[in-house]
Amino acid sequence: MFFPVMWNKKYGVQILVGVMLLSAGCAHLPKDPEKAVSYSQMAPGEGLLPETADAVLAGHGTDESAFMLIPRNSDALNWRLALIDSARQSIDLQVFIWSDDESGRLLLSRIIAAAGRGVKVRLLVDDLPKDWSDRGIALVARIPNIELRRFNPGRVRKGLLSRTLQMSTQFKTLNRRMHNKQMLVDGCWGVVGGRNIGNPYFGLSSTYNNRDLDLLLTGSIIQDLAVDFDEYWNSWAAYPGEAMYKEISPEKEKKLWAGFGRKLEEDRKLLKQTPIAWEPVDWSEAFSTLPKSMVKGVAESRSDSPKVRGDRGERLIEQLVELSLNSNDQVSVITPYMIPPKEFLNEVVKVINEDKRTIRFLVPSMESNNHTMAHSHYKKYRKKLLNAGALLYEFKGEPSAELRALSDTPPIRSDFISLHTKAFVVDERWVLLGSLNVDPRSIHINTEHMLIIDSQELARQLLEQFDTMISPENAWAVTLNENGKLRWTSKDGVKKNQPARGFRQRCADFLWRWIPVESQL
Q: Spelled out in words, what is the top-level CATH class assigned to the domain 314-520?
């Protein structure tokens, strides 16, 4: 078919792209389909969750909340299952990655069961990770009591050429991804932290498992988190999943669910061997321990705007700076991706040299990094950080048995442990925990979310974990010798070359260093 094209400066690119998309016969999502505006629900008057929240918060001030760190991967999955299984009214879940693997399917199956009990479910998942097909998204979104939305999907769904053209003409919009992670249940409990949904986050991957961190929480902060979720859920970028695929025949739908059921049966062969609750259980005993194991504090929730076009408002990092959490002694930072912008480095120099404070960084060593490319663009900042006076530690890919036990879920033993924790501790008072990495993508591009918590006890607990993670058994202390050369020191001795998983990774590290992608990492 021949398409006459009239070229002009203003519309030429759009016309050409339109012609090429049509000729490619690609699939498009409907433009701006109807979707209902909805808001988070208040806590029910009775039930295990609100009653446990009341017990935990007894004696607390009205502005206080309660928190519990979740460092063990199997516990992180079990607490999510406990909240879902115990839900009576609502589940709101926001996440960047939701993998189609044993843990991803297990969580989905329990959410579907909750919806079957009448629980209202809202699921908001970023569209960049492609574990779910558009048909699968629509299938889940059409289940009664479940709404599923994808954040900022490209309208062109098929065809390499078509999607490449779409990205080239809409790069700034489509490059903005939702990295936020939170789950709210029955308006009174939540989980916030660094974990996505997938096997490496819950200790079920044989390749690598993460050393990660979440917070189980209840109290006044839940309302702030609910407002934040609602803003994203009702934003233009949240696309209704039911509109992402044409109608599915009853016969095809039945076949697809039968296939999902068969996968769940296969998954149980693994899950039955683990401490994961592979089927619903009575969680009353687990919840009964929380009044003694949770600590109090006052928290704020801060996040980027969900807007993907035009003015996107104040960045999360700017909001954090405005809080003026000035350190009197020490700042401790854990980040899985460390590619600091110039202004960040300048602040490090100021805090150390002018304010006379200590700054400690814990980042992955190359052997502990699941993205060698990110490490390749971090390594040139080592000397800059050390010359500024910072203390630098790199987490080992083979840490102590104690830390392995937090990451691997028995009987799984992964090839290496990857650092994925995202947390800051200011003195022994402030804890900042959420989705923010110290890299260009988190600071300038993606949407991110962070809790700022004023709690001496929570800060003490996290600093205790930090000190364990930087011990010689678990991390390399990175220093400069008298000649300005980098050295790595741990219980394994002193190394002149950065630790790696092998020659192959060293080659990849060398090659990635020359690819100009740092601004997108």
A: alpha beta
Question: For residue 243, is pLDDT > 60?
Answer: yes
Residue 151's DSSP bridge partners are 126, 238
Q: Rounded to the nearest 10 degrees, how much is the dihedral formed by the CA atoms of 63, 96, 344, 319?
A: -30
Amino acid in the structure at residue 72: R
Q: Are 167 and 159 in contact, with CB atoms under 8 Å apart?
A: no
- CATH class for the region spanning 67-288: alpha beta
Q: Whole-angstrom Cα distance, residue 391 to residue 360? A: 5
Residues 6+ apart with CB under 8 A from 319: 302
**Residues near 498 by Cβ (< 8 Å), separated by ≥ 6?**
365, 366, 379, 394, 486, 488
Question: Which residue blocks in 311-414 are alpha helix, DSSP H?
Answer: 316-322, 342-349, 372-378, 382-388, 401-407
Q: Give the CB-side neighbour count of residue 162, counting CA atoms within 13 A.
A: 17
For the stretch 294-331, pLDDT in tens is 999 999 999 999 999 999 999 999 999 888 788 889 99
* Domain extent listing, the chain: 67-288, 314-520
**Structural tokens at position 262:** 């068969």
